[in-house]
Design brief:
Elements lengths: L1 E3 L1 H11 L10 H7 L3 E2 L5 H7 L7 H9 L3 E5 L5 E5 H10 L1 H12 L8 H12 L5 E2 H11 L5 H11 L2 E2 L9 E2 L3 E4 H5 L9 H12 L4 H8 L5 H7 L4 E5 L4 E4 L15 E2 L5 H4 L10 H7 L3 E5 L2 E11 L2 E8 L5 H18 L5 E8 L18 E2 L2
Parallel strand pairs: 1-9, 7-16, 14-15
Antiparallel strand pairs: 2-4, 3-4, 5-8, 6-8, 9-10, 11-12, 12-13, 13-14
Helix pairs in contact: 6-9, 8-9
C-alpha cells in the first residue's frame, strides 16, 4: 500500500473540508457535503461556512433554517449539529443505537423506574401542546408526571431518544436562551427514513473526511461495529497506510493533493468538523495542542493549528485576539492579519473599526473576549 505522510493527509483533509480554497458553492450544498456542521452553540456553523465560501452572509444560513432546508438537533456523537433536512431524515435513525447508549450512560439512574417508551409518548404530547416548548418547560412537565425525578435529566433523555429539532429563531446567529423543542416529523412534514444502509453514511464520511481509519469513522459518528461495514465496502475503496502503519481507506477518485500544495490561513469555528472528525487528529493538531483546542476556536497556518482566537468588542472596535502556540514569520503574520480583519468584518459588520491583536499562548484571554462571536448585541430568547 502507498504510504501517506502527515502532510499529505493534511492536504487531503483540507481539500475534502473545503479549506484549501474558498468555494463558490451554495451554503446548503456545503452543509450537505460536510454531513453537517458542529453546532453546540448557534454561531459556529456560520463561522464554518464563512471560512469555506467565497460569498457568505449570516442571512444565507438563517434563511435556510427558517425555510426548513437546514435544521439543528442532536446528531453525530450525541452533539448538536446543523445539517440539511434531507440528511437528517435518513442519518438520524442510523444514530439511534448510539443515542440510546448515551442516554443509558448519562441518565440510567435518573430515569430508573420509568418506562422510557411511555416517557417519550408523554414528551410528544407535551411538545405538541404549544407553539414552542423549551427544554426546561418539557422537563418540568415530565417531572410533574414522574415525581422525584430530575426535570433536566428527563428532558435530556428525551433529547437523546426522540428525534427533536430546535427551530428558528433559536439555532440562528446571536440567539441565546432556553432551547425550544419541536418534533422532527412535525417540523419536516414527513417521517424519517428508517431503512438507509450504514454503508451510505460511511461513504459520505470518506467524501468529506478521508482518507481515514475505521476508528476515525467511529470517532466521528459515535457508531460501533464499523469494521464489518468497511470490509463489505472494500471492493469500492482505495487503501493506504499512514506513517505509523495504520490502514487508511478512501474513495478511489477523491482528491488527494500533494504535500507541496499551499494551504491558506484559516480561522476555524469552535469545534469545527475538521478538528473532531477523527480518532487520530494529528493530521491537523498535535496531542499537546489538543488540550488547548477543545471548546476553543482555532487558527491554522500552513494547514496546521498554530493558535486560538476570540473576538473582543470594545468602544466600537471589534478585535480578533489570537493566542499563538509559536511565533509567525513576517509573511505568516501578514496573512493572519489579513484574514483576521476579514473575520472581524464578518462577525461585527456594525463595528466602527476592526483590529487584530496577537498574544502568547501563556497570556490569559482579556476578560471581554467571549468566543460567542455575535457579541453583546446577541438577542436572547425569552
Amino acid at each position: 500500500m502507498d504510504v501517506l505522510t502527515r502532510r499529505e493527509l493534511n492536504r487531503a483533509t483540507l481539500a475534502r473540508q473545503l479549506l484549501l480554497a474558498r468555494e463558490d458553492r451554495a451554503p446548503l450544498e456545503v452543509v450537505e457535503h460536510l454531513v453537517g456542521l458542529n453546532a453546540q452553540d448557534p454561531d459556529p456553523p456560520y463561522i464554518g461556512l464563512w471560512a469555506r465560501l467565497v460569498r457568505f452572509d449570516v442571512d444565507d444560513l438563517t434563511a435556510l433554517m427558517a425555510g426548513r432546508s437546514a435544521v439543528r438537533g442532536t446528531f453525530l456523537r450525541g452533539t448538536q449539529h446543523t445539517v440539511t433536512a434531507s440528511d437528517y431524515r435518513w442519518i438520524r435513525p442510523l444514530l439511534q443505537p448510539m443515542l440510546e447508549r448515551l442516554q443509558r450512560s448519562a441518565f440510567r439512574r435518573a430515569t430508573e423506574g420509568i418506562h422510557l417508551p411511555a416517557l417519550l409518548a408523554e414528551a410528544r404530547e407535551v411538545i405538541r401542546s404549544g407553539d414552542e416548548v423549551t427544554r426546561p418547560e418539557l422537563g418540568r412537565a415530565l417531572a410533574a408526571l414522574h415525581p422525584g425525578h430530575d426535570p433536566a435529566a428527563l428532558a435530556r433523555s428525551v433529547q437523546f431518544l426522540l428525534p427533536v429539532l430546535h427551530p428558528p429563531p433559536d439555532s440562528t446567529w446571536g440567539r441565546r436562551g432556553p432551547t425550544p423543542f419541536v418534533l422532527a416529523e412535525d417540523w419536516l412534514g414527513a417521517g424519517l427514513d428508517e431503512h438507509a444502509p450504514v454503508e451510505r453514511l460511511v461513504l459520505r464520511y470518506l467524501a468529506a473526511f478521508g482518507p481515514s481509519t475505521v476508528r476515525d469513522v467511529a470517532a466521528w459518528s459515535g457508531l460501533t461495529r464499523l469494521r464489518e461495514v468497511v470490509d463489505a465496502l472494500r471492493p469500492r475503496l482505495a487503501t493506504f497506510r499512514d506513517e505509523s502503519g495504520r490502514e487508511l481507506v478512501d474513495l478511489p477518485d477523491a482528491p488527494r493533493p500533494g504535500s507541496e500544495v499551499e494551504a491558506p490561513v484559516r480561522f476555524l469555528a469552535p469545534l469545527d468538523n475538521v478538528l473532531l472528525g477523527y480518532h487520530d487528529r494529528s493530521r491537523i493538531v498535535t496531542d499537546e495542542q489538543r488540550q488547548h483546542v477543545f471548546l476553543e476556536a482555532s487558527l491554522t497556518v500552513d494547514g496546521f493549528v498554530r493558535g486560538l482566537w476570540r473576538i473582543r468588542r470594545r468602544a466600537g472596535t471589534a478585535t480578533v485576539v489570537v493566542r499563538l502556540f509559536d511565533g509567525l514569520s513576517a509573511a505568516e503574520r501578514d496573512a493572519v492579519t489579513g484574514e483576521a480583519l476579514a473575520l472581524a468584518r464578518f462577525t461585527a459588520p456594525d463595528a466602527d473599526a476592526h483590529d487584530f491583536e496577537e498574544l502568547g499562548l501563556d497570556a490569559p484571554w482579556p476578560s471581554d473576549t467571549p468566543w460567542d462571536c455575535s457579541g453583546p448585541g446577541a438577542k436572547a430568547r425569552r
